Amino acid sequence: MDYEIEAVAATVTTQGGRGWRVDMRKPDGTLHCHAFPWSAIEWRMAEYGLDSVEEALEMVLHEPYAVDPLDTFRDAAGRDPAARAGMTVRLAGKAAPEPVRLHNAPTIADAREAHRLRIADAKTRVRVRPPKGKKDPLDAIREQHGVTEAGLRVKAALVDAARCGVRGEPVPEETRRVLAEVHPIYRTSEEMSRA
To answer: Which of 34, 111, 165, 181 is deepest in the core (most CB within 10 A)?
Structure first.
């Protein structure tokens, strides 16, 4: 089923956070609004090692329709395309393997492949599309996405630190150095004494 994009608006939450709102018309004529943080594009690029704003935007727009690999109650039938493709891992202390996802994947490439499978599967149910024969409202996001090299670097380091925590591994020194630039909690005691 196609959801046709009607409008895109930059928004601000009541707490001052910047975001995007994408208004879409469903086939039954009802309006569906998808709101997401301004930083979502940069996060997906950092999380999955993407180099394309376009792919990150496609992910963000289709994630609400993707199977949640952690929702075993609603996915009792085993609909997760990554798990069906054999993309599972067994974490220490877990009785059964679980579907590959960002934080438990052996590598970012594995996480990216699993997420791409889920997005492709979501598109078999819902396709978010620009209006035919009109200017694409998503151009507003493409032109003002806010992705920066510095932002990608810090977000990728945060993802690396979180992935290490889930897998019970120490945070690599390079990751600690990047994060220490933005938050003192990642500084070593020696760095703290010099600060």
So the answer is: 111
